[in-house]
Write a structure and sequence with these properties.
heteropentamer, A mainly alpha (about 500), B mainly alpha (about 625), C mainly alpha (about 475), D mainly alpha (about 180), E mainly alpha (about 100), A: about 500 residues, mainly alpha, two-stranded antiparallel sheet, 20 helices, 2 strands, about 70% helix, C: about 475 residues, two-stranded antiparallel ribbon, 19 helices, about 0% strand
Chain lengths: ~500, ~625, ~475, ~180, ~100
Amino acid sequence: MKFPILTTILLAPITAMILIMLVKETQTKLIKTLALVGSGISFVLSAYLVCTFDFQHPSFQWTEQFFTVPGWGIQFLLAVDGLSIPLLLLTSIIMVSGVLVTQRLTFRVKEYFALLLFLVSGAYGVLLSMDMFFFFLFYEVAVIPMFLLVNVWGSGNKVYAANKLTLYLLAGSALVLFGFFILYFKSGLYSFDLKALLDGNIHFDAGTQKWLFILFLIGFGTLAATWPFHSWSPDGYASAPTAASMLHAAVLKTLGAYGILRVAIPLFPEGAKYWQPLMLALGTINILYAAFCVIAQKDLKYIVGYSCVSHMGVVMLGIGTLTQTGFNGAMFQMFSHGIMVALLFACVGYVYDTKHTRNIEELGGLFKEMPRLSIFFILAGLTALGLPGLSGFVAEFLVIYSTYTVSPIYGTLALAGLVLSAIYILRVVKRAFWGVPAGVVSVGKGHGHDQGPILAGEDLNWSMSIPNYLLFSFLLVLGIYPKLFTDFVMQTTALLLKGF
Amino acid sequence: MNLNLLHISVFANFLAFVVIVFLPKTWVKRSVTVAVSFAGIGALASTILLFRQFSAPAPIEWVIPWLKWNSAQVNVGYYLDTLALVMLTSVCVISFLIQLYSVWYMNEDPAKKRFFGTITFFTWAMISFVVSVNLFASYLFWELIGLASYLLIGFWHEKASARAAAIKAFVMTRFGDLGFMAAVILLIIQVHNTDISFLITQAGSQLGQTQLLIIVGLIFLGVMGKSAQFPLYTWLPDAMEGPTPVSALIHSATMVAAGVFLLVRLFPLIELSSAGMHYICFIGGLSSLLTAILALLERDMKRILAYSTCSQLGFMVMAVGAGTWSGGMFHLLTHAFFKSMLFLLSGYFIFASHHSNDIFDMAKVPLKDKSKLMLALLWIGALALAGLFPLSGFMSKENIFGYLLEHHHYGIYSVALTISFLTAYYTSRMAFVVSRDGHHQMEHHTISKGLNIALRVPVTVLGLVTVAGVWVFFPWLKEFFQLHLELNREFWLNFGITTTVVLTGIGIAYLYFGRKTFSEKGWVGFVPGLDFLIAKKFYLDIFWNAVMQKGVYGLAKAGFWSEAHIVNAAVNNVGYACVRGGKAVTKLQAGEVQRYIVIAVLVIVAVVLYLTFRG
Amino acid sequence: MWFYAIETILTVAAIFFFASSLRRDLNVEALEKFASVCGAVVLASAVLSFGFRGIFFAGTYEMDAFSQFVKLILALGYFIALLISRNIHDIEGKYRPEYFLFLTTATLGMTVLVSAKDLITLYTGLELSSYSLYLLIPMRKHDNASIEAAIKYLIIGIASTGVMIYGFSLLFGLTQTTYLNEIAAKLPGLIHLHVFWVAFFLSVVAFLFKLSLFPLHAWAPDVYEGGNAQTVGFISTVSKVAGLAVFIRFVMMAGHDNRVLEGVWISLAIASMTLGNLSALIQGDMKRLLAYSSIAQAGYLLVGVLCLNDKGLSAAMFYAAVYVVMNFAAFFVVTQISEGGKNVSISQFRGLSSRSPLLALVLMLALFSLAGVPPLAGFTGKWFLFTAAVSSGFKVVAMIAIINSVISLYYYLVIIKEAYTSPDQGAYIQPLVLSPVSRLFCFAVILVLAVAGFFPGILMPLAAKSVSMFFG
Amino acid sequence: MPLSIGDLIFVCFVGITFAGAIMAVSLKNIFHNALSLALTLLGTAGIFVFLHCEFLGLMQILIYAGAISIAIIFAVMLSPPLSLKPKKRSVTKVLVSLSVSTLTFVTLAYIFIRTPWPISANADAGDFSATHIGEILISRYAFAFELISIVLLVAILGALVIAHEEPGDRRLDPEISLEDERWAS
Amino acid sequence: MIYNQLTPYLLVSAVLFCAGLYGIIERRSLIGILIAAELILNAANINFLAFGRFMDVDKAIGQIYAIFVIGLAAAEVAVGLSIVIMIHRKFKSINVEKLVKLKG
């Protein structure tokens, strides 16, 4: 029997979580090491998967199957394909950097890392599970820990934010849940086996496809922060602790889009065609609306949060084109946006912990105070505004290109989004990073417990910037040589369109 | 060998950039050395390449695939024909000279390392843009140029005006860039190939007239942004907030040159759309005229030069639009040299007048405190800009005039003459005022010897090129640019007209500014309403501000509002509704047990009735 | 004789408790220990007799797969109830034997209830359990609320039992028998009669009362608030499961292809879920909140039952089994937190995780499980329920149930938030020390909830097997 | 239809039952209610006799009319101020109750009348004797019969425990009086 | 022969049932409510015996039903009364309308 590598990826964080729960609260070093080891194992293994993945082969690989529930069509089935494998890597990167970013945490360390590991195991589970039961199980596992992470370690209006985020996402997932049951029933398989469903050439009649597709679109779209179901996201991220925001914005939102690509598109081609105008419109509105919202914001975390929403619009638009290039672009954007937004949150989190304010009007001159941090923020910001040479550009280009092939009007509107993103990113850079350092630092009342006290104005040191380097290197490498990425998803995205 | 030279010229600056990035923070001096020496190597390599490759029959092509999707593929690499070669060399050389000059200019700036890092990056981006094999790849570097210029204009970010100018430059050019991007996308969709060689040879035949017009229009939108054409030129004068070498670089061989170069590069494609050509010509002429007028009353030396850049760029664009790519390109080249020289000189004069940009402040400085060499070069540059024989500016302008006359574009010709007159007037106004002998006693700045070289060498070299460059290379240039400089009757007619116009301009400037007493506004004050329009800058800044404030920020506020009052309110209200529902439902649970039973009995009776009377 | 293992042991235990209630010099601690052992023995006997089948007392009493499975759940609940009934502060020590006695007789009544194949036996079992429970509520000392709760419980109880017995009388008239089997055999001639369905519905009213389903839910909040936590935990789990079991028996007696009452069940299920969840949103008292939540949970159970197929029923049984554990776990936390046996308001949970991380974890898992959050047992149970509902064609019901579980999440989240929020600055944090048995119980709960959630393949076949007898 | 003597007697019993029932629920004095209940039970016993269940009628009188009523009266006596001062009835409550019970009655009556009851031809032929009852009771329903003893045990013990007067209970603590809002903690 | 027909008995039982119901939901006194509950049980008893007489069934069963009901009713009253006595002791009142502290 071959080594169950997928299961190990999934179990590593869970094991680490259990071990951490058994460790004494005071042994923070050990806890942090355990967390790092747990996430590191998954990282190494997913990197190994990426290296050995046969990307010429479009369908599932590394299938692992363990136990089943007789009579209910439930089985523990893990597999990866070109859709999940880049996101798997993304998750592990973000997790490792998230753990590294949080090295200074002193407040309730044990629970923090346990929850973080739990969350990430949910994310792995969603990507790996090819059974709807476990898919959904992990989907919610990924959503729930955020509630406590925001409530305990968060800042600002955290109670509201945590409730909104959790309830909103679970409401969205309720639609998905319902959809899964309908699939179970309507497919005639009476099984939750997603793989069988995808491979099975099951054709649903047009009416079913239409309403099921919109069900999944809204359900998964809520997690992907599709307008108008996005409002949980800025509030949630503004209040969440750094690593949680990173993981959530980078990985979980992506899972929403992943769900659409994984389930809705291949199963309901006619539904997808029917709702294509809606998807295009939603994607475009997402981009523009959220971009306008960012321009009016003053809170750094809100800015990043809304820009995240805006970028997810690109993903939605890419999916909405229903072309292979669009899917490639959407996948590329998921990956690139994930890394980028994680980097942004890492920087913003550091700024907040140092200056105890996130109001860009109170900040200023950060570039002078902490040049290294500022450079990372600016680079991530440049990715966000789609600067060539960084990965964001490639993604946005692919999506906009494919949008033009479908509808030049939406393409043009999406292009306009790029101007807006330039405006808002540069505005932040101008207000918060450039200029002279603000003299008086007002200490906010409800500052978070994310990290221990840091001397005002201290720049990132070498060890603290390791995660930033790690994240940025991916932005750069993929920006310079995007073929690395597109080769992976190419075959699988082609397969998604086989029903069209 | 030639390919290697090309590699060197392209990557010398990039290497410098990388090295500077990884140098420790404290190694400031060494980063300057690295930048200048690498740029020098690049300049040298490109010059050698120029001589070796200029008459080569085939362009250098070197390609690596970059991104592939089902219907198209994008490559990066080199496509170096003579056009690119000439541009490459001038970029390399001018950039090198400006970096050398920066050694003096930026001597006391603590952030030198950042400056040199960015400027080498800037140069690299421009060079890569010039030699790019593929229009898509061109776009990549086109954006990087925008980024670098943004970083350089905002280099002194402590100044609020510099921050604002940087953003303005980036956003406005980006607005244009998106047109470029859309054009690239449309080209990929329509012809599945964006290789330059393909575009300038075959693409045109595969496109309909409308498609062509759209694509040309979109590309020109990019050009309008980058090359500061009406109505997007307003960023350029503001960009003077950057350090002077940056202005020199932006206004000569990089950034703004990119737009015109793109037009020339794609000329065979653009040419096919006559409507597009008319449009380009019109916009070029309009921008040229407007910005020339704006320069008439300007007191800030750098801004005068900036307006003149806009004006000259408009002139080039107009020429290209009129049908002579060579006219535009040649003028771009000559203009690059003397304009960069003028900017470098302005740096010196600003320094000499204790960091005042105002030419009338410079006039107050006694003549003995101004370097004679610099004054001489200032006049050379000014007259070249005015287009006076025998300077390089004359040659390139004459070429355009000659073409216009030859092709009977009399309307354009007269516009060009007007511009020429205005240019002559305001440049010589600037030169007259700056070279006045003032009486303000100021302490004399001394420039240390090493730095003196860094100051003098670049300007002198540029001055020499301005005076003699075109004559030295005349045969080559004539062959390549197919200059309209045959010594025939038309030439002399043209020569007469233009020289008269230029001299008139200079003469009027002398009347107002060359003599002992002078008026600030000159003759402009006599034209009713003109000074008002100039003061309002033709309402263009106001317009763009309104777009920003009312449009973008207005929409932003609307978004903010709807976020709070629609999207969030909707969600919150769902929550409130649930709670209200809870309160309503618990009213049933009033504590009286008999009421509970009544409810239960009623429901049971209802069920019983249902069961009794169902179907 | 050991065929009647559970019943016999329960009776013996009852006699013992009765005897000990007569003693004057009572060692309460020893009694509590004995009670725990007794619970364990009952549980063990339930496990051992799981496979037993047989018909006794002239067909009035039958041990079949279903009854044995339900008895296993009942025994489990009984065991937990006795286990957590240590150091009860709100019932005087001298009444402890009676307390245990009534718990035991209530359980005995319920085992009779689920095994009875005859209406008279069933009625007797029902009353035995009901009276024991009526008497348990007012035992809470010095608390007028408990008496009020008791009388409300009693009044609604006797009213619903009266309706039930009236229904029984009509059933008797129609079928001329008291045997469930014979009633089922006579059904084909009766189902066209409207009066049969009326009689049938009136007969199940008392089970709706036990299940605290709408419209007979109203006692639950008041009783839960008034009673002591252990008792109420017992009522909300064991009693509910027994009610569910006999309800299932009745419904299945009417036939699984019979859909006359479908609309009624759907309405009741929806009303229970919605009412329970909406009301729970605005509660401040933990037990009252759990009462409303348990009303909603009954609605979910009904969703499984109304499918009337093996999927739905086995899902309902699965859910009932895990419901016992998770709901009891929640009440267990309440017993641990309450000061001197007083009621616990939600704000009293604040800082629980600093006082006792284990308890906070148990609370969180229990509540999340109740809310149906993965990977816990409650989620898996709901998954089965909704799968069954959708595949039986009840899409709208499933959708409403899903929406309801989202709404319900809110109030669970509020409690969890309180438990995990750090206590206010300067507030004195009294550490909560759990006894070894409690710790063990906590670990067991965590294990069960996680395992049953993630590996439903262990429990589900048992549940499926238990209901398969209804489908030949 | 002419009324026979039997009918008359039957109607008498029904009348007694009704009267007792109505008085039992409508009179304001508990004591009167209890007496009326006894009356009802007597009437019911008479009806039982018409149903050939003389044994049950006897049981009814013995157990119910005797034991239950006495237990109730006992309770009434035990609690001195138990008899509430006659308060005015709440009209709403009466109306609601009346309409609910009337509705129920109409429904039930409709059902009973409409239903074709499967009445056997030789209805009165069976063995109504107490002996037979005894036989069945200890054979078929032996288990339930045993169980009922536990029920009674529980009830008695419970009644003892609950109603047992604590030494301190008499002294009513004003803090936990009915008017206090806080006791629900 | 009214008394030889089933329906009169059923109607009598229905009347008793509804009287009991009325008592339960209208009476203020807890003891009144207990009394009313007895009426309901009696209504059921009449039904049992009536069906026992008129249907083709072992005549003992209806009676045994009734015996059980009577027996359990006795227990019920015992339990109920004990609680009522306790209430009276605590509240000095057995008015059910005053027991409204638990609500919401």
